[in-house]
């Protein structure tokens, strides 16, 4: 068992540690680069340090301290779900999705353009879909199949899957003039990108009624090193080369990131400054923790934001997300609207469709009233003028949860109504349903002692 984990320490913290050992500041930089750039798993791999210094660190109980992948489940669609064990034996789940799940589409980032396969902005998506023919048919087909069709929401998609099966099209279509030798491990495997879904807590305190993780309750927060360490462990497993491979990160696993705010934001800084993953390739999802959103708005370095809306009014939302009793939709929208968005950045509103609960035309109309930028001031809670798009998520079932999936027709109608009302709306591709790796399905199979309450 590691007494002291180096992974998770910032450069100033490492500098202080090295100073205490009588070492020069450059030694801290060597450790920092070994931990985050090289992603070493043991001190013996930090060969820039002398054997004596490595021995002194080990004698003091220091080691890298990365989370360990102890179980792996592989889906028919290539998704992998990992049980990650921390230094104290606690476990969380992390998910690897080759080619992603389409969640970034329309959010204005480079990752979004890659998802769409064209440099089509969210504004163009809205305008284009209104002119598209056969929208209902395409949307229904998409919903019925449980994943996105090649023409979802009026946007032509690059087909999902392994491009080795499609000849050299990938290199011509997405090479952007780069030599093939400049691509990384993912491209050699035939994938354009990959997304890692990261946990921020052991369990979750928010208690969303449609989510399996909620059944675990909350055990404890993860440290910054345990959060960022999940990324390092998965990148090492797949021999990913940052700078060559396109990696997107979503803080959407177990837990509510904004109830573990300081550790979450420290992990973001480590991933950006240490590993070299741009924050524009990261998205954090919150159930609606108002103080967290307000603090997030002031951050100089931050991921993109996704708010789990999941209902069109407070009555329904309070029933399926009890956190609404503390912060209602109007308060959340007001806080989100104050976030200074970067150029081309869009806020994502996630909406899990539950059959017969929040998936009917009247709910779609209420969502438009909340989010439509064309609404006039004074018409109630809304986000007028905010660059926003909606990701529809067809509910992923789990044992002991008494909801049903919406019908394909209801999904298609809901999407069509939002798009025709001026909101860029996408159906997120479910990944790993067969192994309980999809949105809302993460759970642990270990027994739990008495749980504690954190932040709520």
Please summarize what this structure is.
With 456 residues, the chain is of the alpha/beta class. The chain has helices at residues 11-20, 25-36, 51-59, 110-116, 122-131, 135-145, 169-174, 185-188, 224-237, 261-275, 290-296, 314-320, 329-337, 361-371, 408-420, and strands at 4-5, 62-63, 68-74, 80-85, 91-98, 151-152, 155-156, 194-197, 201-203, 218-221, 247-251, 282-286, 304-308, 347-353, 388-394, 424-427.
Name the helicity range. Answer: 25-40%
Shape: elongated
Outline the biggest β-sheet: 10 strands, mixed
Strand order across the largest sheet: 3-4-5-8-11-12-13-14-15-16
Radius of gyration: 22 Å
> Could you tell me the strand content as a percent range?
15-25%
Structure class: alpha/beta
Distance between the termini: 31 Å
Q: Residue-averaged pLDDT, rounded?
A: 82
Q: How many DSSP helices?
A: 15
Q: What ranges have pLDDT less than 50 throughout 5 or more consecutive residues? A: 118-175, 375-384, 445-456
Number of strands: 16
Q: How does this model look, in words?
A:
The chain has 456 residues and is of the alpha/beta class. The protein is 32% helix and 16% strand. The chain contains 15 helices and 16 strands. The strands form four sheets. A ten-stranded mixed β-sheet has the order 3-4-5-8-11-12-13-14-15-16. Strands 1-2 form a two-stranded parallel ribbon. Strands 6-7 form a two-stranded antiparallel sheet. The longest helix has 15 residues, at 261-275.
